[in-house]
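quick one
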Amino acid sequence: MKLFIDSAKLDEIKTAASWGILDGVTTNPTLIMQAGMPARNASPSDAGGDFKKTILAITKMVNGPISAETVSPDAAGMIKEGKEFAAWHKNIHVKVPCTSEGIKAVKEFRKLGIKTNVTLVFSANQVLLAAKSGATLISPFVGRLVDAGEDGMAMIAEAMHIIKNYNFTSQLLVASVRDTRMVTDAAVLGAHIATCPFKVLEAMFKHPLTDKGIEKFLADWAKAKK
Ligand code: E4P
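structure w/ erythose-4-phosphate:
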């Protein structure tokens, strides 16, 4: 399974990239805001400046899919924004919401050879629609489903069945990951990708018995050398 970082913070991305296990990066308007960048307007002409600089900086740190999210409400606006983002770098995946307008935009991006990530996906039927439109990546938000009292992983299982049943080329990107258990569950279900906050990626390395084991080995090694 591929692991992406769900962040626009360059220090976090740089550290995660240094571990050698990072395959891509997802950003969204909230993550851009949290990284300290000024909010950008809906107009594609305002999509430059800090946002563009940040996305380009990320492309230099990670050689894999980098998602940049559109903010237009209609397909025409999404296409205009997405064409601009895609021209910045070959690895940019244009993120659009799973609405009828978003799906229309994905169909057009597919024709243009522009890679996409359909986001804000909360049901298996939305996965089916996004896959039919030719989305490169499809992002179900598992954590937000769990927050709403739903079984997020059951939805991922259904979505993986649908993708496999019809040999769709779309890759399922498990998003809104809250903890390391969700990464394991996604991997067991065969999801193609999980995008994780920095703290979740960091926590994946850790186990108290690993720390305890190192401590004991070092102590015994010191004794052995005496
Ligand atoms: C990533 O593509 C999504 O935008 C992100 O995982 C959403 O996560 P959240 O539910 O923690 O905001």
